[in-house]
Amino acid sequence: MMDYSIRDQVAVIKLDNPPVNVLGSAALTSIYDGIGKADRDPSIKAVVICGKNGIFCAGVDIKELDNGLHAPWIKHIGDFIDNMKKPVVAAIEGFALGGGLELALFCHYRIALKTVRVSLPELQLGLMPGAGGTIRLPRAAGLNNAFDIITTGNRIPAEKAAMMGIIDQIVTGDIIEEGIKFVKSKCNIDTSLVCLRMKTVKYSGDLDDISEAFMTKVKSKFKGAIAPIVSILEFVIIILDLYYVHLQSLSKNSPTYTRAKGTCK
Ligand SMILES: CC(C)(COP(=O)(O)OP(=O)(O)OC[C@H]1O[C@@H](n2cnc3c(N)ncnc32)[C@H](O)[C@@H]1OP(=O)(O)O)[C@@H](O)C(=O)NCCC(=O)NCCSC(=O)/C=C/CCCCCCCCCCCCC(=O)O
After folding, report:
1. Within this chain, do residues 91 and 49 fall inside the same structural domain, yes or no?
2. How many domains does the chain have?
3. According to a count of CB atoms within 10 Å of the terminal CB, is the N or C end of the chain lower?
């Protein structure tokens, strides 16, 4: 499910679940174990996560979702990386889709070949991007881009993703070599400064206007399946309301305040 190797004090965790490196229970366990091993090993200075077979990852194994994925749930990997002092880079080729993009967003950095496509297609499958996509994508790409990517499921080419802030660097050549070179240059960086979860969401305009506009768009697009879509979007909106930072400054009459307050425990 995963190859673990060490190159020049960098741990290389290579997903190996042919043909498209989906994340089932066994793959998730091996990634979690690999990251833990790299973190505990004092000789390791940084980590590269990449995929075999010319693809980073096609997401969570849809076939396993019916039966329920077993621990460690993908979010545990994100929680672990969030607290790591050693930098972790996702070295992406092919596709990073759904949980695959969410795994990449857990990492401190993302580099990609020009031919890469990324997306969060969960909504089209009746799922929500519940492995951190709703939290991290807006922090990488800004609110409008994130809503657009989440609600359309469109595959975003690498260069556009880089302009949005999802990809840190486009590279050519061998993606693993590039990953090692890149992450070695980040060994002295305070990872908490590049941890997406710690960042605030950039947006321009009024939060209520932005969210209502997207809600209207989604309602018209998913006719007949409004309830789950709306609840997914409500979830996204509530996260984006940034209660910790933003709630205090909202007018008590704002719909955003009412919605967030009612849901925030
Ligand atoms: C573009 C592709 C990747 C490749 O295309 P191609 O080369 O043409 O190959 P294919 O023929 O399409 O595929 C080859 C085979 O692989 C199978 N395949 C592909 N993708 C998957 C997949 N994701 N799962 C299973 N199997 C897959 C395919 O069927 C072929 O098999 P076979 O040869 O026919 O047998 C292309 O394949 C493609 O586009 N794939 C689909 C990509 C996709 O849609 N990905 C998204 C998957 S969903 C996901 O990732 C979801 C993530 C988050 C889930 C959240 C769930 C809800 C959470 C609840 C919230 C509450 C939790 C709170 C917990 C807490 O707080 O703690």
Report:
1. yes
2. 2
3. C
- Residue 78, ligand 1, Cβ within 6 A: no
**Spatial contact of 215 and 235, defined as CB atoms under 8 Å apart:** no
Q: Is 93 known to be catalytic?
A: no
Ligand 1 near 239 CB (within 6 A): no
We report the CATH number of the domain holding residue 145 as 3.90.226.10
The H or E element containing residue 111 is strand 109-113
- Å from CA of 8 to ligand 1 middle: 33
161 and 229 share one domain? no
Per the listing, tokens 């077979």 go with 53
**How far is ligand 1, taken at its centre, from the CA of residue 33, in Å?**
22
Q: Are residues 251 and 148 in the same domain?
A: no
Q: Which residue blocks in the chain are alpha helix, DSSP H?
A: 25-40, 62-65, 74-82, 99-106, 133-141, 143-152, 158-164, 175-184, 207-221, 226-240, 243-246, 255-263
- 16: which 2 tokens? 């190996």
Model pLDDT for residues 100-136, shown as the tens digit of each residue = 999 999 999 999 999 999 999 988 887 878 888 888 9
Whether residue 232 has its Cβ less than 6 Å from ligand 1:
no
- Please indicate, yes or no, if residue 202 is contained in any of the structural domains: no
> Do residue 31 and residue 150 come from a single domain?
yes
Rounded CA-CA distance 64/70 in Å is 9
Does residue 104 belong to any structural domain of this protein?
A: yes
23's tokens: 């994340």
Asked if 108 and 187 sit in the same domain, the reply is: yes
pLDDT band of residue 73 (cuts 50, 70, 90) is: confident
pLDDT at position 265:
32
Looking at the structure, tell me whether residues 171 and 97 fall in a common domain. yes
Nearest residue (CA) to ligand 1, atom 5: 20
pLDDT score recorded for residue 70:
66
Give yes or no: 234 in active site.
no
